[in-house]
Amino acid sequence: MRRLLLIIFVGVMAGPLPAAVPVLLESALEKISADYDHWAYTQTTVERNEKGKILKEVVVRFDPSKPYAEQYTPLTINGQAPTAADLKKFRKQGERRGAKIAEAENEGTKRRRVDEDDERQQHGGGRDHDANESAGHPSSW
Predict the structure, then answer these.
(1) Domains of the chain: which residue ranges?
(2) Res 98: pLDDT
């Protein structure tokens, strides 16, 4: 969602784009999206009822340089300092984020292993190689 908003913001600020995106702009957008998860920011969330009255207002600081459990830090909740329960809730949110990132990295590693295995199968004629063969020592020696 934040990426979409960022792309829309950049698009609006850039004005109407020609049919082909300029190389410099395309490069900048690629760099922004590649580093997006490394940005620290303060987020204010406001919930209102149908009449516009504020029901809930939460200000949270996100800092990806901190350990996962400390990345989400509530600054105020409804104008008050966060309670111990609030702090615990946001710590868990950071821990869940860390678990998702670890899971995605593991999936990426598994995919790379599968891709490497497939490539070995294709280039090795489908024959399995043992560790000695991979090191240049045929197992028949």
Answers:
(1) 1-29, 63-124
(2) 92
